[in-house]
Specification:
The complex is a heterotrimer of chains A (549), B (305) and C (183).
Chain A lengths: L21 H6 L4 H29 L10 H35 L8 H20 L28 H29 L12 H33 L12 H35 L6 H15 L14 H13 L1 H15 L8 H23 L2 H7 L3 H31 L5 H27 L15 H32 L37 H6 L7
Helix pairs in contact in A: 2-3, 2-4, 2-15, 3-4, 3-5, 3-7, 4-5, 5-6, 6-7, 6-8, 7-8, 7-10, 7-11, 7-13, 8-10, 10-11, 11-13, 11-14, 13-14, 14-15
Chain B lengths: L12 H34 L17 H29 L10 E6 L2 E6 L4 E4 L1 E5 L4 E7 L4 E4 L7 E3 L5 E5 L5 E7 L11 E7 L1 H12 L8 H12 L2 H5 L15 E2 L4 E2 L2 H9 L1 H4 L12 H13 L2
Parallel strand pairs in B: 1-5, 4-10
Antiparallel strand pairs in B: 1-2, 2-3, 5-8, 6-7, 6-9, 9-10, 11-12
Helix pairs in contact in B: 1-2, 4-8, 6-8
Chain C lengths: L2 H28 L8 H4 L2 H26 L3 H31 L8 H32 L9 H29 L1
Helix pairs in contact in C: 1-5, 1-6, 3-4, 3-6, 4-5, 5-6
Classes of the chains: A mainly alpha (549), B alpha+beta (305), C mainly alpha (183).
Chain lengths: 549, 305, 183
Amino acid sequence: MSRIPLVPEITEPLPSIRESEGLLAWVASIDHKQIGIMYLIATLFFFLVGGIEALLMRIQLVRPENDFISPEVFNQLFTMHGTTMIFFVVMPFLIGIGVYLVPLMIGARDMAFPRLNALSYWLFVLGGLLLYFSFFTQSGAPDVGWFAYTPLSEKPFTLNKGPTYWVLGLLATGIGSVASGLNNIVTIITLRTPGLTMRRLPLFVWMILVTSFLLIFVMPIITSAFAMLLLDRLLGATFFMPATGGSAILYQHFFWGFGHPEVYILILPAFGIISEVIPVFSRKPIYGYEFVAGSTVAIGLLSLGVWAHHMFAVGLGNVFNAFFAIASMLIAIPTGIKVLNWTATMWGGKIHFATPMLFAVTFLIEFVVGGLSGVAIASPPIDWQATDTYFIVAHFHYTLFGGSLFAIFAGVYYWFPKMSGRMPSERLGKWHFWLTVIGFNLTFLVQHLLGLMGMPRRVYTYHDLPYWGDMNLISTVGSLILGLSVIVFVWNIIASLRSGIPAGNNPWNAWTLEWATTSPPPVHNFDLVPPVHGRRPLWDLAHPDMPDK
Amino acid sequence: MDKLGGVFNASSPEMEAMVDLTLFIIIVAVAILGIITIAITYILIRYRRRSADTAEPRQDFGSTKVEIVWTVIPALIVGVFFFSTIKTMYAVNPPFGDREPDLVIIGHQWWWELFYPKSGVRTANEVHIPIGKKLLVRLNSVDVIHDFWVPELGPKIDLVPGHTNHIWLSASKPGVYLGACAEFCGVQHANMRIRVIAETQEDFDKWQEEHRKIPPTPTTGEAALGAKLFQEKACTNCHLTGVGPDLTHLSSRQTLAAGALENTPSNLVKWLKNPEKYKPSSYMPNMKLTDVEVNAIVAYLEALK
Amino acid sequence: MNKNKMLVSFFIVSESIFFLMLILAYVNFHRSVTEGPTAANSLNPIKTGVFSLFLLASSLTIWFAGISLKKKNHKMLCTWLLLTILLGVTFLFGQGLEWVGLIKQNITISRNVFGTTFFTLTGFHGFHVTVGLIMLLILLGLALAGDFKGPESDAVESVSIYWHFVDGVWIVVFSVIYLWAFL
């Protein structure tokens, strides 16, 4: 079988990583793989911090009228937990793993703009530092919730500097994300190896492409809202101050105009991971490739028109609510198509239950729980009960944890051999998996009930009403098991990095181009890129007798 | 079940309609979840890899016919959901025309100002309503966004500064219905509770009649000293101006500090001595009162019926 | 399409949405200002209109700069770039006059929603003009140092795309703020 060399040559000098030593080699690197790994390390750090914040909250809520932490600290904790997990864990993880994988999957040598790539990363780090620096100011971290509704987040009501650091931190990472989005789009459009048409693009790359378009469309919405909030706070502008002619509701339109597409930014690349893992471990191609890719585009477009389902309780009228209800419910259709295609991919396969597949399969069920509760609360009369209660907390943890994070774990175990050259431990991986599944469902399943029984979210204490204490206790026990699972996860990573079995180029017998090079790949990625005649170039190489159509 | 509260104890026609819809959608959703879970479990068992078997399975790329089927079926389900949603939405939230509100609720950090425009009654934190009547409530806020939510009686609705909202409120049987602020509104969001006391029309009229009258200022004993201190210690700066809750009929209320404490004389003493302990960072200052002063003020407030 | 120009094109898509939000905020509050300064009672459409012509003209001059580049006319390229910069600076000077005039009447960003939305919208536009001018200065410096012999240059063409965008945004901003108030 003939191999053709990598064609889209990058004319700029190669990344400088190997030239400098030590710390500078990391700081000065513009190699997409090294930047990708730096993203993953930084997000792991923020994941641990955000997890500790969550555990502290769960300990406070373990029994009614608890006084483990003060209301001020509790409010800082849930603000920082939400902000951290969304903007400094899930989002940069998915961007980071995209940065690592996209050039490899399309047979390119690096991103289209390696320096811009490094800038995105360092802006994300700067944002994280700005956000967490607020803990060292006199009044502590921001305490206005992750959506920082005005006018609560305005000067007269929040005099401390928390929200200012919060805005500055998110502005920095936000600008970095736009740069990542732009970089991905140009990379995917211009640097694909010959033969790799858009219809043959790995689904992970498709999802990154749609996500990147969402990034460049919606990040500027929140950037402008944050600029306005900052001007309000620092220069006395009155955008969102009703007392001086501004509008509290305008901020909500801007925030959710960004905020809802943002949740698809958090889930679409996760869908991409699932779309890679399930076929490989079922030994079958993805079922209905065009429909999986097409439904992603549909979700991306629909997501731009559903923001006000976060605002059903604002009182904007029945007609307004009805429009956003139907738009939101429609998203269930393309999402359902995806779940059914993943399920059909496994039908008739030979399913291998390695750790990545365990997480991917469980993702399907956990995500469906979150998706179905999502359809329910897209209905305004149900949302009028559920919104701002623990039902919502349960719902978005089923999509963000049961969805995005389960997919992230699947992705970490799947690509760990490629990135490190060593296999992760299956034994520890299974411990991690079972602890995560048990801990996660214990923590969040009962929260649906708590919400329906009337427990609002974001309360640092609650009265001893029938069963409230018991259910919160169950939830807290679950969260401690989750904490344990994270320790096992970190232990697995460290142990496997030191003494994992050497992986070889393609330990899972997978079919996309990143598995055609060494593990870890050389700085220039490929000596030779295999020819691409279909969606699974390595399948075609291994089965010349029955290549894909 | 009614011990569970919330959707498990629907107590108004609005809430009953909402619960019917919730049950319908949740049952369908759980059925879908069950089907998918069973299907996945079956596939995982049936198609698991047997260790001896290394041959690749048949490669199957999909079928447009199947895709159309599983696009159309969810679309139909969504259509049904949407139809029942619209029906319930207009049943729960019909237009109110130019009707004047029966009750005005104004959100404050962290308590509720209540005003009955038709009778002129002013109170705080505890809403009295007659059963079997649909009241039109107007809601507003003086500071940040709050949210009025009494789960068993129906929808929640935001209190937005600069934006007036209306909601229908009713209860079909007498009782005390617990609620809370549902939109995060600052440090003491958790202790911004509200309760609705639904009673027969007779009891409600009686309550309203009592609350219309301003109780006479005590002229003798400890309570008289308390009345004097209430003026001198600047309590009136907030509690007579709407900055803090109106205390005119405080002793007839069930709770203190928007539900933070049960309303008993001993709790009132504790609260006056150290509000920071029971509702940290609330705007009620510690006035550094002596025991004598505290007891006098409590005696005065207890005399206000 | 060349990757640099593609990057700039997608970037201005993103930037357009940013400005769209600022414009929406201005429009949202336009009718709610009932007292104090408004666009109609405190702005000078004629003066700003004249200064706007300078910015519009600078779009032409940078277009000519591109033509000179294609024709490998290095001297004219430098001249057109310089002219573009001068026109841009003149526009900014006009914006400065408008701002100083308003601030002298105590019309500031914190005065009312008109002040808030007006200064934010024109301020962010002015910021973008300034960034454009810095990039043009760098181009001019490189050109004088002997760069950009033509017939193609991603740098010149990318900055040109950006500059046209800044100009286009101003046409919308001017229409929304000035024409809407006075026509």
